[in-house]
Amino acid sequence: MLKDLFYFLVYPGLLFAGVAGGFLSWFDRKITAMVQFRKGPPLLQPYYDFLKLLLVKETILPANGSRGMFLLAPVLAVFGATVACVLILLPMLGFHTGFSGDLIVIFYLLAIPSLMYILGAVSSGNPLAAVGASREIKLILSYELTFLLVVAGVILKSGMSIRMTDLLMTQETGGAVIGSVSGILLFIPAVFCIQAKLGLIPFDMAEAETEINHGCFIEYSGICYALIKLSKYILLLTLPAFLAALFMNGLHWDGIHILWSVLKILGVVLLLTLIRNTNPRLKIHQAMKFFFLYMNLLVIIAYILIALGI
């Protein structure tokens, strides 16, 4: 029991993922500043932002709507992101999660933060938040199918195994999934799916500061908004780590492999940052068409290549 609590609260869970995610947030903002010829924030700025919200800013509750759900949604978002992070990182640290089908469980856990953002938005009673929630629902319906097909494609390539440990062992012996043509075709939709899960441009229409003033999060402040930021930090580590596990032979924390593991995570975050700094925000119908048509078509082509052994 104490070991499980340590995994969840300290390493590789809440504390580790929050700190590492804060660093990745700084890395993302620093690269963005470099692209825009700015200096960018100091290293500790994401932590300052979080602590200011947590300890200084007042938590203001909406006059209308369901206050209980409004307060509970950020807590559940952090919970879902943290559990997903633990289940993704533990196999790569050499620990067995103890059950079959953890890939399927991880897929559903990664959907919890987005669902909580929606519930928090609609429970606030703000019409702009409702618009943001509506957009987030449509976005989820678009990318979740593609993400599921990507995960299923990786399972096909790994011998129909739905365990993280088996997937990592298959890549150890047979090479990384991304080392094949079908693997590359699966990797491309996967990157755009996690871009959408993180709510980054061009898929930030649910927040859209210039249109609906932060949308889903317009009523959040203080501790509640700090928890939302924390869930974003955790996902900024969790999703690239999941991508590394699916396509790049996972992460290894011994010797020189530590450097390669860090470079894998930074490489994925760099790719996400460059995408969001070189593309305009899409309209919701454009995003839906992008995933339903183009990304799903790429996945189908990858399936055909998998069947041909390519």
Characterise this structure.
This protein is mostly helical and 310 residues long. The chain has one domain. The chain has 13 helices and no strands. It has helices at 2-9, 14-35, 45-55, 67-92, 102-109, 112-122, 127-157, 164-174, 181-197, 209-212, 222-247, 257-277, 284-307. The chain starts with a helix and ends with a helix. The model has no long low-confidence stretch (mean pLDDT 90).
Blueprint (SSEs and pairs):
Layout (H helix, E strand, L loop, with lengths): L1 H8 L4 H22 L9 H11 L11 H26 L9 H8 L2 H11 L4 H31 L6 H11 L6 H17 L11 H4 L9 H26 L9 H21 L6 H24 L3
Helix pairs in contact: 2-11, 2-12, 3-11, 4-5, 4-6, 4-11, 6-7, 7-9, 7-13, 9-11, 9-13, 11-12
Features:
310 residues; mainly alpha
Nutshell version of this structure?
The chain has 13 helices and no strands. The chain is 71% helix and 0% strand. It has one domain (2-307).
Helix and strand element order: HHHHHHHHHHHHH
Tell me the number of structural domains: 1
Structural class of the secondary structure composition? mainly alpha
Proportion in β-strands: under 5%
User: Major beta sheet, specifics?
Assistant: none
- Rg value: 19 Å
The total beta strand count reads: 0
Task: Tell me the helix content.
Answer: over 70%
Overall geometry comes to globular
- How far do the termini sit from each other? 45 Å
Question: What is the overall number of helices?
Answer: 13
| Overall pLDDT score | 90
Low-confidence stretches: none
